[in-house]
Specification:
Oligomer: single chain
Distance between the termini: 13 Å
Largest sheet: 10 strands, parallel
Helix content: 40-55%
Number of domains: 1
Order of helices and strands: EHEHEEHEHHEEEHEHEHEHEH
CATH topology: TIM Barrel
Structural class: alpha/beta
CATH class: Alpha Beta
């Protein structure tokens, strides 16, 4: 198996931490993480969030590319409908060149109403804009010159340079709706399930993907991960962080009817207050190294996961505390799966 790291750069309100500090934590972490055997870095992205959750994943990943040599550099995910697609094609191509062909383009249509309102994009058009923009991007990257005439976007005869180093550029899909899963599977690429989902939900998504002809040679699974010498220590630090994350974004949007969130029993969250650590802990990897080995084994054996993307720099956890988890996980967990330095 392969292991990667995920960053969101959130600072919960009232914590007294400056917005720039999580970015510095990432840049200090990644060279050491690469030495330890982590093979990828992913950037979470949302927009106009009160805690600064990263709205500019390509810029953040350009920084990651500059301090690493081998790690895959990825968005997880970039919300395509909020971007002008021709400019996005240029920026992605430059990032693939900057990283010497290490970029993975993780994409999603998005769902948070405030994001679409702030960017002046009708939320009800997000799916149509998503697929149309992806068509435009593929033409921009693969054709010497092209023109495009779509419902939302029109491009006269144009040549986009530079082209990405990788051909085709890897596209990973952060999707969960049955129709979207089937459509993406038919395009090729990789399914990248959201950390919002438990194993039973991901299993359903993979089944739809397979039925539609999608390949599962790679199945990256994102998880909130935190390890310490004892499970009690890990939960003391990480339980408030993951509860904040799930309550303030996923739980809030589920309660508002924008995107369904289910707890470990399968119950749909219809009030933010339903979100607590105990009712969601089955999807977290938070504990001592032996617990983490057991949980990663479940992801491998029950889902066929090929990669585990570890979200350790969680909201409100200091960079030093997160780095101790990064080190301990590499030393005690990764070797059990043939990974690590």
């Amino acid at each position: 198996m392969r292991f990667g790291l995920m960053f969101s750069h959130q600072v919960p309100p009232g914590r007294g931490t400056s917005a720039h500090e999580p970015y510095g934590d990432m840049l200090r972490c990644l060279p050491r993480a690469e030495e330890l055997g982590y093979e990828s870095v992913f950037q979470v992205s949302h927009h106009v969030q009160p805690d600064g959750l990263c709205p500019s994943p390509l810029i953040a990943m350009a920084g990651a590319a500059a301090v690493t040599e081998r790690m895959r550099i990825a968005t997880g995910c970039l919300l395509v409908p909020l971007y002008a697609p021709l400019k996005l094609a240029e920026d992605v191509a430059v990032l693939d060149c900057l990283s010497n062909g290490r970029f993975v383009f993780g994409v999603a249509p998005g769902y948070v109403s405030e994001e679409f309102a702030a960017h002046g994009v009708p939320r009800e058009e997000r799916q149509a804009r998503f697929w149309e923009a992806l068509d435009l991007l593929q033409q921009a990257w693969t054709q010497e010159s092209f023109s495009f005439e779509g419902r939302f976007f029109q491009v006269p005869e144009t040549s986009v340079t530079p082209k990405p180093i990788q051909s085709p550029l890897p596209v990973w899909y952060g999707l969960s709706g049955p129709r979207s899963l089937a459509r993406a599977a038919g395009r090729g690429g990789v399914l990248m399930p959201s950390p919002r989902h438990g194993i039973p939900e991901i299993r359903e998504h993979v089944a739809i993907w397979r039925e539609a002809g999608g390949a599962v040679d790679e199945l990256p699974v994102m998880r909130e991960v935190f390890v310490a010498e004892t499970t009690e220590q890990a939960e003391e630090l990480a339980a408030p962080a993951v509860t904040y994350l799930f309550r303030e974004l996923y739980g809030k949007k589920s309660a508002q009817g924008e995107r369904e969130l289910r707890d470990d029993s399968g119950r749909v969250v219809d009030a933010q207050e339903q979100v607590d650590f105990d009712h969601f802990k089955a999807r977290y990897v938070i504990g001592d190294p032996d617990f983490a080995i057991a949980e990663v084994t479940k992801l491998r054996d029950e889902l066929g996961a090929t990669d585990v993307i570890c979200w350790m720099h969680l909201p409100g956890i200091s960079g030093d505390a997160a780095m101790r988890s990064v080190e301990l996980f590499a030393r005690e967990v990764m070797p059990a799966f043939g990974a690590g330095a």
